[in-house]
């Protein structure tokens, strides 16, 4: 028998993710091995245990929107558009993340608690967005009294839509994400009286 | 052998709920029967199938906060307090509901989709709250431009806190629900200029 083709870690994670999401935490390892074209013992040799595989294939990672928010508001684009861009980026991230959270919850890992992220992803995003909104406020481009409350409302509304849609399908979160978020941004943020045409100290990207 | 004591439907539902929430959708019927002190065949005779039992024990019901919101704002209590009362009532409801949604999702039922509620619970609550806020606005007791957006923000923030806390524990939704919601209410609703001292047509409860 010729040596079986080597599968990469990424291929293993992708196969495991697909099978766990389709079948839930009780999915047999055999189905993942079959998908990869290797034997179950060979798969176990690579990953250690089923729990370890589930953890690395479905583990929550820090929200990628944080990198979008980190530099603060850009000068050349309306605040509303920038905010919407970051939130829709996070919507796509959540759509990938949420199904895995449901699987992990009933795994032997005991859910996301077992994953030891330093800052829980929902907290990290609220903090990143609060900082971003505070900078937008300081630059005079928006008027809002409580950046933290606005971040809570925006993150919460977005997360709830993703959770609800995962639980019950699109009728549980009717309407268009973008339209709902834009409306919320307009209610929470009013454009500043001095519309950001004053020179900034730091160079914005 | 003497006739076994009859268990009520409510007892069956409570036992099933406890076992499914503790062990997930793959919990054996035997564990539920044992908890009830009856045999597995006797349990199946009562409930039909495991899926039917899971459905009736964990089925989402319409949010009970709808009944609190239905009469509209009362005259004798500040709007903020009434809103907070309804939202915290709904928080308690969600804490009961959310764990069951996670179990149902990986059951043979295919999640909440299989349960055929006329109006999905999150949609019903947004509609109920939008109506309530519209009445508060029309009575001049609060100023808010978009009752629907405010309802989306409040329901979303609350649902997200309950979902996040279920997924990752209290560090995923840090702080006090009541304080977070009160802050959000203050950001979204400003007290009306005419503070509701004008006579109302209908008698408020």
Give a nutshell description of this structure.
Two copies of one chain form a homodimer. Helix content of chain A is 60%, strand content 2%.
List the SSEs and their pairings.
Two copies of one chain form a homodimer.
Chain A: H1 9-23, H2 29-36, H3 40-47, H4 50-58, H5 65-69, H6 79-105, H7 121-138, E1 142-143, H8 147-168, H9 177-188, E2 190-191
Antiparallel strand pairs in A: 1-2
Helix pairs in contact in A: 1-2, 1-4, 2-3, 6-8, 6-9, 7-8, 8-9
Architecture overview:
The structure is a homodimer of 205-residue chains. Chain A has nine helices and two strands, in the order αααααααβααβ. The first copy, chain A, is mainly α. Chain A has two domains: 9-58, Arc Repressor Mutant, subunit A, CATH 1.10.10.60; 65-191. In chain A, strands 1-2 form a two-stranded antiparallel ribbon. In chain A, helix 1 (9-23) crosses helix 2, helix 2 (29-36) packs across helix 3 and helix 6 (79-105) packs across helix 8.
Quaternary structure state of the chains depicted: homodimer
- Which strand-content bin applies to the residues of chain A? under 5%
Fraction of helical residues of chain A: 55-70%
Q: Strand sequence of the main sheet of chain A, in spatial order?
A: 1-2
Biggest sheet layout of chain A: 2 strands, antiparallel
Quickly count the helices of chain A. Answer: 9
Biggest interface between chains:
A-B, 46 and 46 residues
Q: Can you tell me the number of structural domains of chain A?
A: 2
Q: What series of H and E elements makes up the topology of chain A? A: HHHHHHHEHHE
CA radius of gyration of chain A: 21 Å
């Amino acid at each position: 028998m010729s040596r079986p083709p080597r599968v990469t870690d990424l291929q293993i994670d992708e196969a495991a993710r697909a099978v766990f999401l389709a079948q839930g935490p009780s999915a047999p390892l055999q189905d993942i091995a079959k998908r990869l074209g290797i034997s179950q013992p060979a798969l176990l040799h690579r990953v250690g245990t089923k729990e370890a595989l589930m953890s690395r294939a479905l583990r929550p990672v820090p929200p990628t929107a944080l990198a979008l928010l980190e530099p603060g508001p850009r000068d050349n684009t309306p605040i509303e558009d920038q905010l919407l861009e970051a939130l829709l980026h996070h919507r796509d991230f959540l759509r990938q993340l949420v199904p895995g959270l449901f699987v992990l919850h009933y795994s032997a890992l005991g859910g996301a608690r077992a994953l030891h992220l330093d800052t829980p992803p929902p907290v990290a995003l609220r903090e990143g967005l609060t900082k971003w909104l505070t900078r937008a406020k300081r630059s005079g481009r928006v008027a809002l009294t409580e950046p933290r409350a606005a971040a809570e409302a925006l993150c919460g509304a977005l997360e709830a839509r993703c959770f609800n849609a995962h639980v019950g399908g699109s009728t549980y979160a009717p309407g268009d994400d973008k339209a709902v978020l834009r409306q919320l941004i307009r209610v929470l943020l009013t454009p500043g009286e001095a519309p950001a045409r004053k020179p900034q100290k730091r160079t914005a990207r």
